[in-house]
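Good morning C.,

I know you're traveling, so I'll keep this short. The sequence:
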Amino acid sequence: MIDFYSSSCGACKYLLPQVINLCKKGCEDSCPVDDSWGIIFLKHNVRDDYDELTDLARFYAIRVVPSFTFFQNGSPIKHLLTRDKQRLQEAVCHVREWLLERS
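The tokens, ready to paste straight into the viewer:
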């Protein structure tokens, strides 16, 4: 999962503790985040030093932050635009369940 963010985005800063929590602890006791199910969490600042969109943000057509994109085998499988911690957690758990069903 890539968390596309901007350092000047208040909602991105608000969600940062949730993203960190998901990386460390998982969604809930029944949905732990670990390497065994293959979700890797990355953060990408969409603005470069000149306040231009980065190539990666342009490639994935990121227009709004915070924006979360989930990948499988290098291809996007789910895209989420949200400022809601609960929706983010639900999306991570949903993707986890989807990946587990296909493994």
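Safe travels,
E.
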